[in-house]
Amino acid sequence: MIRAKTSASQACGSTSFRRTMRAGFADQVLKTLPFLRNKLTGHGQGADIVEVPAVYGELALQLAATLHNFLISKHLERNPLPPPKPADNSMSYLDDDIPF
To answer: What is the pTM of this model?
Structure first.
């Protein structure tokens, strides 16, 4: 039997692929930020102060921002915003008396 090749967009649509992707994503990507915190500063520092290079702090900050953007995008994908209401172009505010 000859199987047709699937495109990346078709593969992303399959349920099994999404489950596999989510599991790998959770294990590898989402745990990166807590790993940096726990290994570099959060636990086990002891009596000696461990100096963490600034580049790791920058990495943690950018990872947090990227994960934040990803989570908001996924939320908006699942819960789209309602369409905006049409603008009210009435000029009634120009007819108001000046309050001073």
So the answer is: 0.55
